[in-house]
Specification:
The protein is α/β, with parallel strands linked by helices. It has 3 domains: 3-81, Arc Repressor Mutant, subunit A; 88-161 and 267-291, 3-Layer(aba) Sandwich (D-Maltodextrin-Binding Protein, domain 2), CATH 3.40.190; 163-264, Periplasmic binding protein-like II (D-Maltodextrin-Binding Protein, domain 2), CATH 3.40.190. Helix content is 40%, strand content 22%. α5 (102-116) links the parallel β3 (92-97) and β4. α1 (3-15) crosses α2 and α5 (102-116) packs across α9. The longest helix has 25 residues, at 59-83. The relative contact order is 0.16.
């Protein structure tokens, strides 16, 4: 059993297709197929059911994929440890992060990284929660920074901080003149939310529904900054994470705290239990904790 055979196995399992897997692995399709066939011959089990247009894992293949994921993660970790053995940290760390967190938290973390570990390479991947979990489960990223809770026993989860969601309204909105703003004051408002698939939009709706508010969603956007521009232009209102309100911008909305219970989200970091962290990943995790707001 060779390491490259295990890499080919995971590529076929991930793509469901021998040709696409060969493209990803930068080998010819016949060569990849031959290596998979050799692996099956050595193990005495078929690893894939080869259909007309795709390849589907057998039960034996599923078992080997789990083991192969751990083996390759350990191999990469060993290489990282060797690379990091010197006094200065020179390894690489791959970090996945939600787009609603990345531009507001990562500058603090990366500034610390540049100052304390200038030779360390950080690779960033912005994606939705579902995509981050898939990447973390496959050990394609070392760490995922996202919104908790995540109910999945494959991962080690660590809470970093809680963040209030502030009500963003246009500058001359009547709510800016009220001393206290509650959920009942929002009944006739038009909401602007993130697109479906972004957990912040789901969290905003969940908060409203828990307090018997069924908001009229006027617009959805894929970008938090776009939502804030639309709010400032009088198009509607929204719930915005507090970190995203700190940056100065022309024509900014007015941000208000709702009365208790205030909406909030929990920010955390997770990684797959079987993924061994090299020195670079461990150091980045330390800097991430250090950079988080109290």
């Amino acid at each position: 059993m060779e390491l490259h055979q295990l890499r080919y196995l995971l590529a076929v399992a991930r793509t469901g297709n021998f040709s696409r897997a060969a493209e990803q692995c930068r080998v010819s399709q016949p060569s990849l197929s031959q290596q998979i066939a050799k692996l099956e011959s050595e193990l005495g089990e078929r690893l894939f059911n080869r259909l007309k247009r795709n390849a589907v894992l057998t039960s034996a293949g599923e078992a080997l994929v789990q083991r192969a994921t751990r083996i390759l993660a350990e191999v990469e970790a060993a290489r990282g440890d060797v690379a990091d053995a010197g006094a200065q940290i020179r390894g690489k760390v791959s970090v996945g992060v939600l787009p609603t967190i990345a531009p507001y938290l990562l500058p603090r973390v990366l500034a610390l990284t540049a100052r304390e570990c200038p030779a360390m390479e950080v690779r960033l991947h912005e994606a939705t929660t579902a995509q981050l979990l898939a990447s973390a489960a496959a050990c394609e990223i070392d760490l995922a920074i996202l919104s908790l809770p995540i109910d999945d026993t494959r991962f080690i989860r660590e809470s970093l901080f809680d963040e209030e969601l502030l009500l963003a309204v246009p500058p001359k909105h009547p709510l800016t003149k009220k001393k206290r703003v509650g959920v009942k004051d929002l009944e006739s408002e038009r909401f602007i939310l993130l697109e479906e698939g972004h957990c912040l939009g789901d969290q905003s709706l969940s908060f409203c529904h828990r307090h018997d508010l069924h908001p009229q969603v006027a617009f959805r956007s894929a970008q938090l900054e776009t939502i804030q521009v639309l709010v400032a232009g009088g198009i509607g209102i929204s719930l915005i994470p507090k970190l995203a309100t700190a940056a100065p911008r022309p024509g900014r909305p007015v941000y208000l705290s709702l009365t208790e219970p205030r909406p909030k989200r929990a920010i955390g970091v997770l990684w797959r239990k079987e993924c061994h962290h090299g020195r670079a990943a461990r150091e980045f995790l330390r800097l991430l904790r250090k950079a988080c707001p109290a």
